[in-house]
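debug: dumping io for the single-chain case to check the tokenizer round-trip. Nothing else runs in this session.
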Amino acid sequence: MAQGQKYTIPLALTNQGTRTWEKAGANPVRLSYHWLDTQGNMKAFFGFLTVLPQDMAPDGSVSLNVEVYAPWEVGDYALVMMSQF
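debug: decoded output
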């Protein structure tokens, strides 16, 4: 990846929890990401928010695209996706 550039990444997502992830409403779920260096230190916190394409019941799955910005510093990183309620 080129430093600081925006990329679209395909993602397969499964709700392994016990409650439905809602696309909208009072408590919508959004996806975001962090970049970690090889020692596990956070280098970029809380990137773009991605809206779910639909509500996701427990054990439900969906394929979607997420947008991420590459880190500004050159290095080896791990991309960690997270959900926000």
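debug: round-trip ok. The chain is about 0% helix and 45% strand.
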